[in-house]
Amino acid sequence: MRGVLLTGHGGYECLSVRDDLRVPVAGAGEVLVRIAAAAVNNTDVNTRLGWYSGGGWTGSFQFPRIQGIDACGVVAEIGGGVSPSLLGRRVLIEPCWRAPHEPLSAARFFGSEVDGAFAQYAVVPERHAHPIDSPLTDVELASFPCSYSTAENMLVRAGVSVADRVLVTGASGGVGSAVVQLAVGRGASVTALAGPTKHAPVRALGAIEVADRDCDLIATFGTAAFDVVIDVVGGPMWPSLLSALRPGGRYTTAGAIAGPDVALDLRTLYLNDITMFGCTVLGEGVFDGLVRSVERGDVKPLVAAEFALDEIVEAQKLFLTKQHIGKIVLRVG
């Protein structure tokens, strides 16, 4: 089969497009998915560069690896004990694999600890291949799994509701734009931070106000302005995110694209009774709830560009310019 192997940590030379890869075989409780489309993510680039401690999202990383955490495809074969009704069904692949009884440390991520979607076929546990009925294209559907489930997981963990005023950083990116849509869908009042050229598109997603990502947050909004901060940026402005929270506020993070090292004044944390959530492993039922939201049309896909699978280097280069809104998707099938 055709696919892209990550052969080591480093530059684009570590991405090898191959036509001689072995088609994997579905075992008991597994399905073989013919991948139709797969989206590009920060995690692909971070792993290639060796940004994560241990090499992958959750620990040790083995080369070569087929990356790709976002996928839409069709079930081509089933393993033992799998319902035949899944054959031929279009599915979204849940990015985070963990059985209900397993600890968080047992989680595996598609395209990181196991081979992923940057190939024509992938083997997936039956419980993580979610059938979906939607008029959206394969490319559009491939824009949802990782970013939108990450966004949904943060909102669930923070308990966001109609009563909340929510600040969203990185609001024009894949996760940030998903957070805006999903938070607005909950009835929350959303303020978004984005680059100056992206204010109008982010406002169109439902944000009531959009400010520049480099603004002086406290001068613009004051202290104690928000109930919840949903952050994927980190970096130098991080201390002001906590200062902008009301007493009893909640902070969630699932990224650090502006830098992982931040300054924390513990007095801000404990004197204001702030609750902080680090969000990586999906909670039980989060992805299934996302699939239902997609089927109902509660969220819309944001596809910035499409590339063929063998154009993965060009796709990642465009991704790293950070000039796009939404997702960059590879056509695989």
Question: How would you characterize the overall build of this protein?
Answer:
- The protein has helices at 42-49, 138-142, 145-158, 174-185, 199-204, 217-221, 238-243, 266-271, 286-296, 312-321; strands spanning 3-6, 15-18, 30-39, 72-78, 90-93, 96-97, 108-109, 121-125, 129-131, 165-168, 189-194, 209-212, 226-231, 245-253, 275-278, 303-308, 327-331.
- It has 333 residues and is an alpha/beta fold.
- It has two domains: 3-144 and 301-331, Quinone Oxidoreductase, Chain A, domain 1, CATH 3.90.180; 147-278, Rossmann fold (3-Layer(aba) Sandwich), CATH 3.40.50.720.
- It is globular, with a radius of gyration of 20 Å.
**Rounded mean pLDDT score:** 94
Secondary structure class reads alpha/beta
Contiguous helical run count: 10
CATH superfamily of the largest domain: Medium-chain alcohol dehydrogenases, catalytic domain
**Top CATH class of the largest domain:** Alpha Beta
Number of domains: 2
In CATH, the architecture of the largest domain is Alpha-Beta Complex
Q: Helicity range of the residues?
A: 10-25%
Q: Determine the strand fraction and express it as a percent band.
A: 25-35%
Number of DSSP-assigned strands:
17
Radius of gyration: 20 Å
Low-pLDDT regions: none
Largest sheet: 7 strands, mixed
Overall body shape? globular
Order of helices and strands: EEEHEEEEEEHHEHEHEHEHEHEHEHE
